[in-house]
Design goal:
Helices cover 39% and strands 21% of the residues. With 336 residues, it is an alpha/beta fold. The strands form three sheets. It has a five-stranded mixed β-sheet with strand order 3-2-1-4-8, sandwiched between helices. α3 packs across α11 (312-325) and α5 (195-207) runs antiparallel to α8.
Length: 336
C-alpha cells in the first residue's frame, strides 16, 4: 500500500556487453534482491526499455517488495552520454543507438525518476561509497575486461572532462608500434591487456608451434583469457609468459595513471582483473612500484582488487538514486 512504512529502495540496472544485473538497494548499500540475465546486443530500443521495466517490476513482486517503496532507477551502461540531459549519444553494447533520450524513455516505462551513468563511472562511485575507495580521494576504479576503462572520483564527484570522455585509460598508448586497437589507434592499453588481447597473444604463441596446456583446455570454444589463466595456474610456460606480458602492460598503464592523478587508491575490477587476480595483482603491484618515480608515495597508494566485485556497477547505480534523485528527502544520507 502507499502508506507502507518500510524504508525506500533504489531500483538498479547495470548493463554489460552480454549480461545485465538488476536489483534493489537501500540507502545503506544493502542489496535486498537481484537478478542476472543475458542481453543480446543490438536490441530494439523500445523493446529493451520495456523489458527492463517489466523485469524490475517482476523482481519486486517475486521478492515481496512493495513497488511504492521504489523511489527511483539508477542505470549504468557503457557508452557516451550526457548524464544531465539523460541522452545516450552512442552505446557500443547496443550497436546502432544514436542520440537516445534514454532517461525520458525509461521514466515513461517504469513510472519512476531515472538517473544514468557510464559503467566505469558508476562502478567507481559504488566502490567509493562502499568499497576500496571509501575515504580515499582521489580514487580511480579501473575495469579490465573485454575493454579497459576507468572511473575517476575526486571530491565526491566523477571527473568527466570537458566533453565527458575522461577516464579512457584503455586508449592511452603503451606501445606506438603495438597492435591495432578498435579505436583506430595502435598500441593502446586495451589492445594489449584486455581479455581479447590476452587471448590473441596466446593464439599467436600457439600458432608458432609452442607446446601448451592451453590447447587442450580451450576445447571447441577456443582460447580465451580464462584459458590462459587456467593453464598458468598449472605452471604452463607459454601461458605464464602471456600473463607476465599482461602484467607488464598493465603496470605501464597504472604508472602513467599514478603520475598523472596521484590517486590515494586504485581498485581493479572487470572480468579479467577479477578472474585472474591470483596471477595478476601481486606481480602488478610490484611492477608498478618498480616503475613509478621516486617522488611517489607508494606506501600510501593502495592498489587493490574491487571489494564489490560484479556488484560495483549495481551499487554505483544505487548511489545515483540516493545522491541525485532522493537527495532532498529524509530517506537517508547520500554521502560516502
Amino acid at each position: 500500500m502507499i502508506g507502507d512504512p518500510s524504508p525506500p529502495l533504489a531500483a538498479c540496472i547495470d548493463i554489460g556487453g552480454t549480461k545485465a544485473l538488476i536489483g534493489f538497494v537501500d540507502s545503506g548499500g544493502n542489496v535486498l534482491a537481484q537478478e542476472r540475465f543475458l542481453v543480446a546486443p543490438g536490441r530494439d530500443l523500445a523493446e529493451l526499455i520495456w523489458e527492463l521495466a517489466d523485469k524490475i517490476r517482476a523482481l519486486a513482486q517475486r521478492s515481496g517488495i512493495n513497488w511504492h517503496r521504489i523511489v527511483g532507477v539508477g542505470y549504468s551502461t557503457a557508452g557516451m552520454m550526457d548524464v544531465e540531459s539523460g541522452i545516450i549519444f552512442a552505446s557500443p553494447n547496443q550497436g546502432s543507438w544514436r542520440d537516445v533520450a534514454f532517461t525520458d524513455l525509461l521514466q515513461k516505462a517504469s513510472g519512476l525518476p531515472v538517473r544514468i551513468e557510464m559503467d566505469a563511472n558508476a562502478a567507481a562511485l559504488g566502490e567509493a561509497w562502499l568499497g576500496v575507495g571509501k575515504g580515499a580521494d582521489p580514487f580511480v576504479y579501473v575495469v579490465v575486461g573485454t575493454g579497459i576503462g576507468a572511473g575517476i572520483v575526486s571530491g565526491g564527484q566523477v571527473l568527466r572532462g570537458w566533453r565527458g570522455t575522461a577516464g579512457e585509460i584503455g586508449h592511452t598508448v603503451i606501445d606506438p608500434n603495438g597492435p591495432a586497437c578498435n579505436c583506430g589507434g595502435y598500441g593502446c592499453l586495451e589492445s594489449l591487456a584486455s581479455g581479447p588481447a590476452i587471448a590473441l597473444r596466446a593464439r599467436q604463441i600457439l600458432r608458432k608451434g609452442r607446446t601448451s596446456r592451453m590447447t587442450e583446455l580451450a576445447g571447441a570454444s577456443g582460447v580465451s583469457a580464462e584459458t590462459v589463466f587456467q593453464a598458468a595456474r598449472l605452471g604452463d610456460e607459454a601461458a605464464l609468459e602471456v600473463v607476465e606480458q599482461t602484467v607488464d602492460y598493465l603496470s605501464i598503464g597504472l604508472t602513467n595513471l599514478i603520475h598523472l592523478l596521484n590517486p590515494r587508491a586504485i581498485a581493479l575490477g572487470g572480468g579479467v582483473a577479477l578472474g585472474g587476480a591470483d596471477l595478476l595483482l601481486d606481480p602488478l603491484r610490484r611492477a608498478v612500484v618498480r616503475r613509478v618515480g621516486s617522488w611517489v608515495d607508494m606506501d600510501g597508494t593502495e592498489i587493490a582488487l574491487s571489494q564489490l566485485g560484479n556488484e560495483a556497477g549495481l551499487l554505483g547505480a544505487a548511489w545515483l538514486v540516493w545522491n541525485y534523485l532522493d537527495k532532498d528527502s529524509t530517506h537517508g544520507s547520500s554521502s560516502y
